[in-house]
Amino acid sequence: MAGTREDKVLSSIANLNKAVGTCEKLLRYPIPLSYTRHTSRFLCCWLGLLPLALWDDAGWGVIPITALISYLLLGIEEIGVQIEEPFDSLPLEDFVRDIEKDLGNIIASREDVGSLIKTSISLTANTKMAQAMIAKHKKRQQKKAKIQLGIGEESLEKQLAASGAKDA
């Protein structure tokens, strides 16, 4: 009986490690910013020209039709942007705390803790790694936001000019 419970715990920990690895892959390979910008710009242009295409068939009814279609398509586009960056919408820090708490309860209730100590140490390392991933992702998001707002462009141009001067 004790062996089966230990096997279940070790299996759950192995599954957790696989999930953390999958999340790392998602975080390391984000969708390029230019893809999102291109999609958004194309959609805005298409929606801007839609009333001209519908005017002959719908007359003044083109206004509510265009408004409805715009609302639906822009909503789908926003959902797509949210799906591209899943770590922003998930409470990962809460998940990590819950997992850590559950593991603490399992270890505390276990009579023979010796076999699980090594596993919990590696899980704690994975927890710290997950927290580091979250922090790195937040920094990346802040950098993207600065670039989108034009804040980082001047310093980027200075860095490019400095590297060009070094090459010359």
From TrEMBL:
It is found in: Cell membrane. The keyword Transport applies. InterPro entries: YneE/VCCN1/2-like (IPR044669). Keywords: Cell membrane, Ion transport, Membrane, Transmembrane, Transmembrane helix, Transport. It holds the Pfam family Bestrophin_2. It is a multi-pass membrane protein. Its main location: membrane. This is Bestrophin, RFP-TM, chloride channel-domain-containing protein. It comes from Dunaliella salina (Green alga).
